Amino acid sequence: MDDCIFCKIIKGEIPSEKVYEDDEILAFKDINPAAPIHILVIPKKHISTLMEINDEDMHLMGKIMKTIQKIAKEQNVAESGFRLIANCGPDSGQEVMHIHFHLLAGRKMGPKIIS
Ligand code: 5GP
Ligand code: ZN
Fold first, then answer.
1. Which domain holds residue 15?
2. Which of 12, 20, 64, 89 has the fewest CB atoms within 10 Å of its CB?
3. Domain for residue 76, yes or no?
4. Choice among 38, 46, 98, 100 that is catalytic
5. 33 Cβ contact list (under 8 Å, min separation 6)
């Protein structure tokens, strides 16, 4: 998608601090971190929201979850824990319309995720 920020990051047109990359998935540090570790995990395929996931994306979504496990281990937070957030649609506050998972870690999270 030409006007998608995350597609531009995937293509290297916008710089990012990558923490993981393969042929289908990219993970990079959030530009405005909400925790000591704040990583965005995205598919390279442009899928705008969680509601746009198709049957053909099942393998990709499973692979993203396995990648999150791998990143959590590499970042040494597999045991201490982390929070995974996927905003979807207007009421969630989703700003970038390319599906992404926020991996937040490195501090004790509050009891509530809503504000
Ligand atoms: P959303 O609110 O859509 O769930 O989250 C979008 C996230 O993308 C935000 O946490 C924001 O800081 C991050 N973000 C937006 N633009 C950029 C960018 O150009 N580079 C990086 N690394 N993160 C970005
Ligand atoms: Zn995109």
1. 5-105
2. 12
3. yes
4. 100
5. none
Residue 25 lies in a domain: yes
Q: What is the pTM of this model?
A: 0.97
In a domain, 60, yes or no: yes
Amino acid at 12: G
How many domains would you assign to the chain? 1
Q: What are phi and psi of 26, to 5 degrees?
A: -130, 140
pLDDT of 115 > 60? The answer is no
What is the mean pLDDT of the segment spanning 66-90? Answer: 97
In the annotation, is 59 catalytic?
no
Which residues does ligand 1 sit against, CB inside 6 Å?
5, 14, 16, 28-32, 40, 87, 93-96
For position 51, what pLDDT does the model report? 98
Residue with tokens 């990079």: 28
**Inside any domain, residue 115:** no
CATH number where 24 lies? 3.30.428.10
Q: 107-114: which pairs have CB atoms within 8 A and are 24 or more residues apart?
A: 107/35, 107/36, 109/35, 109/83, 113/83, 113/85
Closest-lying ligand to the alpha carbon of 100?
1
Question: Residue 114: its pLDDT value, please?
Answer: 57
